Amino acid sequence: MSTLVQPPLFDADFQAKLALLIAWRRDVRRFRTDPVPQSLLDHLADLVQLSPSVGNSQPWRLVSVADPARRAAIRGNFERANAAALQAYRQERGALYARLKLAGLDAAPVHWAVFCDRGTTQGEGLGIATMPEMLDASVSGMVATFWLAARATGLGVGWVSILDPQAATATLEVPPHWKLIAYLCIGWPEEEHIDPELVRHRWQGRTRAGRIVLER
Ligand SMILES: Cc1cc2nc3c(=O)[nH]c(=O)nc-3n(C[C@H](O)[C@H](O)[C@H](O)COP(=O)(O)O)c2cc1C
């Protein structure tokens, strides 16, 4: 049975602010080192439980990485993966790649490793018989929700994917059926930008918005 409640009015002012929030959400790699209140992180972790998930499975698992030895191992993992990635680029692209800052692992006061529990029974398998990757997709959606919610509080989030996921899983000693989806650097941004870092540094521009690719 559903309870009849009056939903809040998301008025034009709110909608304009929401558009600004979406426009100003950035992938942040330059952080101040001052701490983030645990109460704020707890609030955000609670909030993202409301994210959509296939079968209502909520397969995301958050691991806060604070141990210096584990952080150093993740840092080494990134260095190796980034050096290997650089090898794929030649000439000017390679030189540009080498100049990009692709993680804020050193300064960010908070690190969260976000996993998908591919063995979860929550959701009773609904929606994943045909597309099992929807569990991973649900976790990505949660991260997007978190990214916006964090930005609304002034917190910056940087998604690091230049990592060997198996090595990261071993470093963090999580169950082997947990799949690494995102390693997040979280903290107060050192600078604010309306344009993405990769656009600013001429790596990749944005394609124009609002286009439906095919009509059927
Ligand atoms: C799945 C995913 C993985 C990403 N991995 C990295 C990464 O390893 N390093 C990095 O600097 N940015 C990473 N990013 C951030 C993107 O580069 C960034 O979202 C994009 O350039 C657009 O910039 P914006 O997020 O500031 O709008 C990732 C983003 C997503 C969604």
Summarize the structure.
Strands 1-2-4-3 form a 4-stranded antiparallel β-sheet, sandwiched between helices. The N and C termini lie far apart (38 Å).
Protein described:
- With 216 residues, this protein is α+β, with helices and mostly antiparallel strands.
- It has seven helices and four strands.
- It has a single domain, classed as NADH Oxidase (3-Layer(aba) Sandwich), CATH 3.40.109.
- The protein has a four-stranded antiparallel sheet with strand order 1-2-4-3, with helices on both faces.
- Helix 3 packs antiparallel against helix 6.
- It is globular.
Mean pLDDT: 96
As a percent range, the share of strand residues is 5-15%
Bound molecule kinds, no repeats: flavin mononucleotide
CA-atom Rg in angstroms? 19 Å
- Span of the ends, CA to CA: 38 Å
Write the CATH homologous superfamily: NADH Oxidase
- In CATH, the topology is named NADH Oxidase
Order of helices and strands: HHEHHEHEHEH
Strand order within the widest sheet? 1-2-4-3
Instruction: Kindly state the number of beta strands.
Output: 4
Count of discrete structural domains? 1
- The backbone outline, from C-alpha atoms, is globular
The second-level CATH architecture is 3-Layer(aba) Sandwich
Count helical runs. 7
* Helix/strand structural class: alpha+beta
Class, according to the CATH hierarchy? Alpha Beta
